[in-house]
Amino acid sequence: MDIRFLFYLCNIHYNIKKMFPDFIFEASWEVCNKVGGIYTVLSMRAKTMQERLKDQIIFIGPDCTKDAENIYFKEDKSLFAEWVQVTNDEGLSIKVGHWDIPGLPIAILIDYTSFFAQKKRILWQSLATIQGR
Question: How far, in Å, are 10, 37, 64 from residue 29 at the CA level?
Answer without folding.
Answer: 41, 11, 10
